[in-house]
Amino acid sequence: MMTLLLLKLPYFTVVVLTLLGLAAMVFKKNLIKILMGLSLMESAVNLFLVATGYRMGGVAPIFTNAPSPHMTLPTVQALTLTSIVIGVATSAMMLSFAMVIYKKYGTVDSQKVKKLKG
Amino acid sequence: MDVTQTLQTGSGAWNPLLWLLALAVALALALAIRSRGRKDFREGNGRKPFISGNEEPGNAGGHVPASNLYWGFLESLKGYYSRLVPLHTGVPTDYVAWLLGVMALMLVIGLTI
Amino acid sequence: MMDTFVMRHLPALLIATPLFAAFLMPLVGNAGRTVRSAWVFLGALLTSAIGLALAWKVLATGTVLYVFGAATTQQALPPDAAFPIRIMFQVDALSALMAVIVSLSSLGITIYSLAAESKQSGLETFYAMLFLLIAGVLGMVVTGDLFNFFVFLEISSLAGAALVAYRVDDGVAVEAGLKYALLSTVGALAVLTAIGILFAQYNALNLASLAARLQFTALDKVALVLLAVPLAMKCGAVPMHFWTPDTYTTAPSSVTAFLVVSSQASLYALFRILFTLYGHLVQFSWATFGWFLIVLGVLSMFIGVTMAIPQKDVKRLMAYHAVSQTGYMLLGVGVGLAVLGNAEALKTYGKTAMAGGLFHIINHAMYKGLLFLTAGAIFLRTGTRNLNRLGGLGHTMPWTMVFFMIGALAIAGVPPFNGFASKLLIYESVFRFSPFLSIIAMVVSILTLASFVKVFHSMFLGPPRAEFAEAREVPAPMFIGMALLALFVVVAGLMPQPFIDHLISPAVDALVDRSGYIAAILGGR
Questions:
Q1: Is residue A84 part of a domain?
Q2: What is the pLDDT of residues A1-29, one digit of tens each?
Q3: What pLDDT score was predicted for residue C188?
Q4: Are A53 and A75 in contact (CB under 8 A)?
Q5: Which among B59, B107, B113 is the nearest to C288, CB-wise?
Q6: Does residue A24 form part of some domain?
């Protein structure tokens, strides 16, 4: 029972993180907080990817002195690395957008950043 | 008129070259009728367009700005537009909310069928 | 000819060329303006040539497979494994169609931008981003790997957002860029989650082997929604279209024209996932997802066009029309999906509807690109996009007016331009599915014509204005760029059937023939 719970724990965390991120993106007004929500969601997805790659009893696929021949295919880890890199690029770009908006509009309130509408 | 130029739609056909030919025939007819008009008419030489005996107004300021076009259309559909336009709030969080809303709706539909 | 080194490595070169052009751009930019322009032109020309050559090869010899890192590029399966583990590009007739669209429009748009952007600063970064965008969009349409697709989707979104915000324009452009980046990232995260769900169940990322193994469990349904809805958002379907007008309005016109193509690539991915990945599962309800596309399509058509009519900003008006025209494609292909299980209906009108929808994609990319480019030309010469302030430009910019008329008549579906050919296919086939939908499509076309009459009247007609006395015809590169797109609009309008026979019908067959797509990789296993 305890092992099962431990195995499912990452998925619970994923759900909680995703909900937190979504809530921040929909209900927060500050652009920086919206971007924090986005970052939280990114972490949730990364955690989800890594969690799906876990195999009980499997070892990392390093062939030198491998303790066991049961190795896991490290695809998800590779995906997660790529996704982290993309996430960094996205966050950096969007935070710099928020900076420019603050310079030009004098506010980061998303309800006031709406010159484009209608 | 190559038959390969004819677009087959399953229940009809459309040949743009034939259509252009028809257009050319119509144009030729129009020119033929026009050529039967008075040859001695020249623009200017004292003739003016007859607008109920009034002077012809100049064309300065005669351009109708875009916002005044289709005023009647927009006025008669006021009920529709007054609901639709405010939905385009321009607030990023609303945009995300719409995306999540459609996703949630499709999840419910997808999982129940 | 068919087996030279270049011909064998076309799919890899298709991505490598724009990437190479992009990453060397800051270096080349130091060598001066002429060298930079030549580099941009060469890069665009080469990319287009490779794209067209690849499409030609695919249409002549069938699906082209390109496996990265294998002993031969054709070896999809490793000798001792039963499933593909390498990243591969799988270019079938549908991908070839998209490659043609991207190649033709990117060439025209890049040539146009050489003159349109020449007065701006920071052009090295601008063109580096533009080539990244081209690489991302090309990658999206040729890849046969889901995660690879996600990477290209993100590349195109990030480059697109950076380009939208490129001219800060008192922060307005940055606001649009932020909205685009935010929505794209949320959508891409949903796509990534779906990819994770699929990988966790089937240990595969390859589209074909996933398609062969899919069971349609409850989790697969969740994955389908997480894939389909964000992609529908990326192509600007109502009610998730709000980013489109904001983004298309503020981006430089050459970028806007390319963003249209980028949204078509998302449309391609949506169709690919619905048809190839899920399309032929017994439990899959074709009607439900067919109607999902149809409802999105009808909403997009109608709300898009009605929102366009009262607009005062010419690019915002055109952006709402882009939403509206996407509706036609969704409608046409949606009807095809709805009758996918019914062989009789599929044969009599389903395939025609899909052909109309796919033909409309290429037509739309051309005439909408052309319209955005004319709007950019007007903005370059007058400095305003406000329709209330424009007027009388037909006297000073006659060629721009001609190009605008070609684009406007094509988008309104007036014969003999290409928009009419694809819309006719959609009307007549959709009428046999549901007459009501067909009538809506026609009404939307009429409203489209009405709103472009308004734009034409406000921009070009009327007496010459004193404030635009200096306005003159655009420089040669812009003219050539617009002429390229206009030429396609006219040729495809006058001779639609060759396009249907050689380009569109193979794409429709590729979309319907799911087992062919799978067999290309798994070889019938």
A1: yes
A2: 778 888 889 899 999 999 999 999 999 99
A3: 95
A4: yes
A5: B113
A6: yes
Mean pLDDT of B59-79: 84
Whether the predicted pLDDT of B81 surpasses 70: yes
Q: CA A45 → CA A35, C93, C186, distances in Å?
A: 15, 33, 11
Query: Can you give C70-97 as a three-state secondary structure string?
Result: CCCCCCCCCCCCCCCCCCEEEECHHHHH
Position A76 in a domain:
yes
Nearest to C297 by CA among C263, C332, C266: C332
| Structural domain contains residue A98 | yes
β-strand partners of C206:
C145
Sign of the alpha-carbon torsion through C8, C12, C17, C23: negative
- pLDDT at residue C243 above 50? yes
**Residues of chain A positioned with their CB less than 8 A from the CB of C192:** 45, 49, 83
Q: Is the dihedral of CA A80, A82, A88, A90 positive or negative?
A: negative
Alpha carbon distance A52, C196 (integer Å): 7
- Chain B residues in contact with A94 by the CB 8 A cut-off are none
Asked if C443 has any chain B CB less than 8 Å from its own CB, the reply is no
Give C313's DSSP letter.
Answer: B
Our CA-based measurement puts residue A67 at a distance from the nearest CA of chain B, in whole angstroms, of: 44
Q: What is the DSSP string of C177-238?
A: HHHHHHHHHHHHHHHHHHHHHHHHHHS--BHHHHHHH----HHHHHHHHHHHHHHHHHTT-T
Give pLDDT, residue C110: 94
Q: Is C151 left (phi over 0), alpha (psi -120 to 50) or beta?
A: alpha
Q: Where are the domains of chain B?
A: 3-35
Domain that holds residue A21: 8-54+70-105
Over 70: is that where the pLDDT of C282 sits?
no
Q: Is A71 helix (H, G, I), strand (E, B) or coil?
A: strand
Whole-number average pLDDT of chain C: 90
Domain count, chain A: 1
Average pLDDT over residues C109-119: 90
Query: Is the Cβ pair B109, C285 closer than 8 Å?
Result: no
Q: Which residues of C touch A113 (CB under 8 A)?
A: 175, 178
- Give this complex's ipTM: 0.94
* Dihedral class, residue C164 (left if φ above 0, else alpha if ψ from -120 to 50, else beta): alpha
Q: How far apart are the first and last CA of chain B?
A: 52
- Provide mean pLDDT across the span C101-127: 91
Determine, for residues A90 and C175 on separate chains, whether the beta-carbon distance falls below 8 Å: no
Q: C502 phi and psi, to 5 degrees?
A: -95, -20
Residue A59 forms beta bridges with which residues?
Answer: A71
Q: What pLDDT, in 10s, does the model give residues C180-217?
A: 999 999 999 999 999 999 998 988 888 988 888 888 88
**Residue A94: which CATH number?**
1.10.287.3510
